[in-house]
Amino acid sequence: MQDSSLAATGFVKALPADVRTALLASGRDQRFARGQIIQQRGDRAREFWYVASGTVQIGRYGLDGRLILFALLGAGDTFGELAFMGEFPRAVDAIAGSACTLTRIGEGALRRLMESDPAITRLLLKTMALTVQEAFDLIEASRNLSVPQRLAQALLQLSADRPEDRAVRATQQDLADLVGVSRVSLGKALARLQEEGLVDPGYGFIGIADRGALRAFLAD
Fold first, then answer.
1. Which residues of 110-143 are buried (b: 16+ CB within 10 A; e: fewer)?
2. Deepest of 9, 88, 144, 196, by most Cβ within 10 A of its Cβ?
């Protein structure tokens, strides 16, 4: 998949600095406590969100009340564009993974931005297409990759837009939910990566020793 960092980042971070600043200035900041629901599946999509600080969990609640985690977002990421642009109900739940500040961007602000420069519309469409492609990649990975490889893939995706930062801010439970395995299975996979010298786990984060080596492990 090409240019996957764009899908991981969201299109706002890819905008020219002056355009990004103007768009965010037109939005409204809202604060959420850890565990607070930001949006629910089935909600009408009246806005999309930019993560100014903190983390956001994206997933779906199952019949047993457990959240099946699809993505863990951090500062600079966006979510909600697909339903917002497609004018269909929310397909996922979003929950504050930690205390966070989000910028709410409504229809008027985005419409004015798109009308100001056709290139921005193309960038948004590209982001949406890459997001869908990432979803297909994750489905394929769940069928063909081992648990350690799926963990490696998740770590690479979570750090795709910040390669200079060698630490992924996520708990082992977050990663277990994201990969779709038990906490015990995640621990075994993490130990395997650590034995290979690829990661260095810490409290609340996973250090990545060598992104290139982690990609090579994923490709084996």
1. beebbeeeeebeebbeebbebbeebeeebeebee
2. 9
Mean pLDDT of the chain: 81
C-alpha count within 13 angstroms, C-beta hemisphere, residue 54: 21
pLDDT in tens, 66-120: 777 777 888 888 888 777 777 788 888 999 988 999 999 988 887 787 788 777 7
First to last CA, the chain: 17
Q: Which long-range contacts (CB under 8 A, 24 or more apart) does 169-177 make?
A: 169/55, 169/74, 169/204, 169/205, 170/55, 170/72, 170/204, 170/205, 170/206, 171/204, 172/201, 174/57, 174/69, 174/72, 174/97, 175/151, 175/206, 177/57, 177/59, 177/67, 177/68, 177/69
